[in-house]
Amino acid sequence: MTAFWNQPDFDDHEQVVFVRDAASGLSAIIAIHSTHLGPAAGGTRFWHYVEPSAGMRDALRLSRGMSYKNAMAGLPAGGGKAVILADSNRTKTPEMLAAFARAVDGLGGQYITAQDVGMSEADMVSLSQRTTHVAGLPGQGGGDPGPYTARGVYLGVKAAAKRALGTDDMKGVRVAIQGVGSVGGGLARYLAEAGAELILADIDAARAAALAEELGGISVSTEAVLSADADIVSPCALGAILTEESIASIKAKAVAGGANNQLATGSEGRLLVDRGILYAPDYVINAGGIISVLRHIDSAGDDEINARIDRIPDRLEAVWQESAATGATPAEVADRMAQRLIGR
Ligand code: NAD
Asked: Which residues does the UniProt record annotate as the domain Glutamate/phenylalanine/leucine/valine/L-tryptophan dehydrogenase C-terminal (predicted)?
């Protein structure tokens, strides 16, 4: 077996904790990538992995991603991630959650957890009965992070317009939004208010059509939205949508949206540069949500949260400037900046 330290996703993680509670059947992995900037913060994912090693890869990879995201969001937080390895029936009992909460508590605040795929708000509340190291709870203020993410993405889209189109006056700028849920729908409202022309798509076609009617835009099919006749495309639904094929079809001058992990394999940033398309690295532009969720780390109020979100455009601009100066892609530059911030 390859030594743990030699696994491709191991990136000098400070601590990786294997949690096993035989009585409840809990198996979990808590990965602490970095505490350089503050407690390692990141969600708990409850997922059935056919191979447990895939859960390990997720914990290692996603915790590093959280280090980068929290650093680039300017937060006093490091990066961590927990994975609860569910059985094929996805059995989740109060006893398992209690055992997991004890494990989080045992780390003494080095790891702060939050909601992620497979965990409900009620699950997070139940964890919080046994440990205080839970962020994003209903009573902590902020509520749904979607609106905060949407505002940050709107500011990022404006920054992209300024750099790629030469103006951040959104009047008449055509923006194609893929997915008009919490983030994409909120973004559409800000853009409509600013006078942009909206091209909306959602797999729930009625949802896109209703919003287009309300805000005065048009709706198109989900297949057509990325290649729409637009100035800016804003992916706000799924990840991995920027592929060789989809990038070849993009007519817009910039891609700036809230979806996580937009580059299909991570290397498509180069294809965007080659086509002269400006790219806003996803974890930089969509940081509004995590900025709000992690508010209790330093007891930040709404004014401070909004001030942090207001800095997203400057961070994007710094990324684009360094990209232009060095020839590295925006995604590579963002990772490098994050690495510098966490002392790596
Ligand atoms: P949501 O579920 O509220 O909205 C997603 C929308 O996308 C839905 O309306 C859905 O019907 C639509 N959709 C799904 N597949 C689609 C497809 N193939 N084509 C077009 N539309 C499709 O989710 P959300 O909270 O708005 O999140 C959207 C994206 O932003 C996700 O990638 C999420 O990980 C990311 N994100 C969200 C937040 C947040 O605070 N909510 C923060 C950071 C990143």
From this structure: 143-343
Residue 142 has pLDDT above 80, yes or no: no
297 within ligand 1 shell (Cβ under 6 A): no
The DSSP element (H or E) to which 21 belongs, if any, is: strand 15-21
> Pseudo-torsion of CA 272, 273, 279, 284, nearest 10°?
120
User: pTM for the complete prediction?
Assistant: 0.96
Closest C-alpha residue for ligand 1 atom 12: 179
Q: Which residue has the tokens 């048009």?
A: 218
The domain 146-341 having CATH identifier 3.40.50.720: the answer here is yes
pLDDT tens profile 114-127: 999 999 999 999 99
Distances (CA, A) of 335 to 70, 243, 252, 331, 344: 12, 20, 24, 6, 11
pLDDT tens, position by position, 80-118: 999 999 999 999 999 999 999 999 999 999 999 999 999
